[in-house]
Predict the structure.
Amino acid sequence: MRSIEQVMEKVTIFITRKKNSRIELLLLRHPYAGIQFPAGTVEEDEDTDDAAKREIYEETGLKDAGLKDASYHKRQKCMQGLMNQALTGQNLGEEPG
């Protein structure tokens, strides 16, 4: 068991797919917490990749998910674009109209 002084590590997973030249981002509707990304706590003796795969399976049922890790800045830019697309319905690469 972790002591109170230990930091609990978390993972958040951004699951995307390309469909009809658009990039789609998976969001989950939690019955109490609302709309969210798959996420969870890294268990003791588990690395972040294994935790991410476990959370993906537990929360979506997807098996054998390929994980890609990018630098913070690449992730930040990608997520800004995906969130803009999700909120506006605008395709990535389209000029605002």
